[in-house]
Amino acid sequence: MYAIVDIETTGGHASANGITEIAIYIYDGRNIVQQYETLINPGVPIPRYIQSLTGITDEMVANAPAFDEVAGDIFALLHDKIFVAHNVNFDYSFIQYHLAQAGYQLRTKKLCTVRLGRKIIPGLPSYSLGNLCKSLEISVTQRHRAAGDAAATVKLFGLLLQQDTGKAIAHALSTHSKEQFLPPNLPPEQVTALPGTPGVYYFHDQKGKVVYVGKAKNIRKRVNSHFTGNSAGRKRQEFLRNIYSISHEVTGTELMAHILESVEIKRLWPVYNYSQKYIEFKYGFYCFEDQEGYLRLVIEKRRKYSAPLHSFPLLVQGHQMLRGLIREFDLCPRLCFLQKGQGACSPIPDHTCRGACEKKETSETYNLRVKAAIIHMQQQQPTFAIIGMGRDAQEQSCILMEKGRFYGMGYIPRDTAITEGPQCKEWLTQYPENEYILNLIHQHAGAHDQELLKFS
Questions:
Q1: Is the domain of 354 the same as that of 335?
Q2: DSSP-assigned beta bridge partners for residue 402
Q3: Strands 428-430 and 110-112: what pairing?
């Protein structure tokens, strides 16, 4: 038995909006055997544009029952039926949420006539209720009222039952089918075609623009997890409505998927990705020559498009490294901006400035030690590759770190022996780095020493 449902609401998501009208037709596949409809007082003013769309005004619902007053009747009609609606997840999320607020837990199978229409009667210009009914010559009265739209959905569903030669409805209701949870505009074959391998997936909107990027150890399983449940929040409902297609890129390892996801979020700036957009190194080492010709090492906040000698997330890390360079190469603390004010600098532990800050040491002599310190700092950063599984048996994956910086990643023929870092590069794609990526790589390297190729 089917419960064909339509509701009118004060807005687009259940957690902050109310229901103003509900219609439920109990349908046995041939006839309507029971009908229920009522206006509902949502407890909040109905926005003017909603009043214009539906014709339901605040005055009309002023004496109507609140939802919790009719929740028991609604639950009794729905709890043992198959819930059918046009864009079913919208109606279901509202009714499930408000029933839960009234103390009832609704868990039923669902069918979406948008999705079934696309599958059973493909090739139509639009699958909105109004346009679909127009294409199929189904009469609609009282458009955008619950009873009128529910009655049209009954006729539509009856037609879909008759034309379902491919058993799409039975498949959607099967215990193994995830189709009833999918967004209404997403072709199910795109989901079933996804691989069960590591990689990155992309959700696209109606115009093909990427609106979300995700990474996965198993792409198919992770994508399906986005569509389970019936969260009533505005962001989730809007997110699901805007997914029209999925693309993906397979990676050899889960680590590569994490890295590629971070790169792609930065590159594409998808509207529904909220994390990682602003992950950056906060500080860097810079070197410049002052008016007297002395090279000056300085720690500054990273500037956009700048190229620091070395980057780090915490200021204390930079100070520790700079003090080490000062001690080892007899650099001037004042010229390195670790001491402020005018005049000579104060001694530091183990060494004393050779007088560059007082011009007792020439810039040429002092600068040689600054350059040596920079070379030393860069040489101290490790160069290594992480070698892992490829996308198939003929290749192996490679992630290259060069002098502490992320160079890039790619795939190398499995029978190729790698003995030095530059040898890898012809197979690799260069990518920008960020703090998140470097932390991922260093954590993985620390825990998987057997995967490392270390280069001198």
A1: yes
A2: 405
A3: unpaired
C-alpha span between 63 and 433 (Å, rounded):
61
- The answer to whether residues 6 and 91 touch, using CB atoms and an 8 Å cutoff, is yes
What pTM was computed for the model? Answer: 0.58
pLDDT at 350: 52
Give the CA count within 13 Å in the CB-facing half-sphere of 208.
0
The C-alpha atoms of residue 15 and residue 230 are separated, in whole angstroms, by 11
Residue 335 in any domain: the answer is yes
Q: Is 234 exposed, middle or buried, given 0-12, 13-18 or 19+ CB atoms closer than 10 A?
A: middle
In the structure, what pLDDT confidence band is assigned to residue 417 with cuts at 50, 70 and 90? confident
The residue from 216, 237, 268 where one domain ends is 268
Given a contact cutoff of 8 angstroms between Cβ atoms, the answer to whether 367 and 348 are in contact is no
Tokens of 17: 């909006």
Residues of the domain holding 419: 383-455
Neighbouring-strand partners of residue 27: 2, 32
Q: Which two tokens stand for residue 293?
A: 């010709």
Q: Is 322:374 a contact under the CB 8 Å cutoff?
A: no
Per-residue pLDDT for 106 more than 70? yes
- Within 8 A by CB and 6+ apart from 336, the residues are 296, 297, 298, 322, 325, 326
Q: Which residues pair with 388 in a beta bridge?
A: 397
pLDDT in tens, 273-309: 887 766 566 788 889 999 989 999 998 887 766 677 8
Radius of gyration over alpha carbons of the chain, in Å?
32
Q: How many domains does the chain have?
A: 4
pLDDT tens digits along 176-185 = 566 667 787 8
Could you give the CA distance from residue 85 to residue 74 in angstroms, rounded to a whole number?
Answer: 15
The secondary structure of 175-196 as a DSSP string is TT--GGGS-TTS-HHHHHTS-S
